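Extended Data, panel c. Modelled sequence:
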Amino acid sequence: MSSKAPKNATGPFVVGLDIGYSNVKIAFGYPSQGEPKTLVRPAHAAPISAVNGEHTAGPGEFFVTVKDERWLSLISPARADIKRELHANYPSTDLYYALFLGALVAATEDGQSVIDNLITGLPTSQSRDPALIEALTKRLKGKHQVAPSVVVEVKEVLVVPQPAGILNDIYSSYSDPELLDESHILVVDPGFYSVDWVNYNKGHVVKDASGTALEAMSAMIGEINRQIGLEHAVSPGVEKIEMSLQAGRDNVVVRGARVPLAPYVERAQEIIANEALKDTLQSMRFQHESQPLDFIFLGGGGSEYYKAAVMRHYPDAQVLTSANPVVSNAVGFWLYGNV
């Protein structure tokens, strides 16, 4: 057991970590505690030299060390003007590592120095590449000098396909798990950079009918931005729209006035969600014809924007959504570590 564990804690200290392009989602704790603690922070970090205003760590923000340079991790996008890393090599970047270190500090809030099991995910298409899995495992495993006086050791790392967390999360709370074991299930995970899907038939992954599409939330927000611009002469910008959606606001400011988001979200859903699902339909075509889907599991921060399109394309399947879609993968990853 890790050092400085709470009195009621037994077993390994486990962290489920979902480092996305918009948010970092963390689930952490001990199996004996029943459910993990969860945390959602912005997927934003920057060298101190690039931080706007005071160089201090606010609530939920952490100083970390990347290549001997001090960074602020898990900060609001407004605190630093840096280019977002929207590409497949994201896990190899300094930004990703800074977010990872920030997540280690957040997860070890009780002063633990050791994480026994850390589970994270890669997009479905990348999770088939043993070299990518090995590289990420090597990067995350071992002792990390988070700050000059803070070292956190990660003993074991497991990398799984991104939607596997959603499957595990929903499966763990479903009233009849044996029914799911006998079913044909499509798990859909709309993230910020990509939409991932994994096809499970009677508990086994159907690799040829699983994959990744890039018509994700970044594309959805871009289309919302374009649609607003067509009607209002100027576009508010994708960052402003993203911040409004994350804050749960139903409007965005354009030319000094509040513009409702709903009609533009609906138009973007028609275009982007349907385009993303074309790839799933193509990969699933023969499989679905011979063995129709029983369930579709939806999770991830973009699930609400894709649900209508999923139900339209697969009207005979029962759609189940995670109780807390944003942290669904992280919670599901955490459950893997408790086995």
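The CA atoms of residues 156 and 228 lie 47 Å apart. This feature is highlighted in the accompanying rendering.
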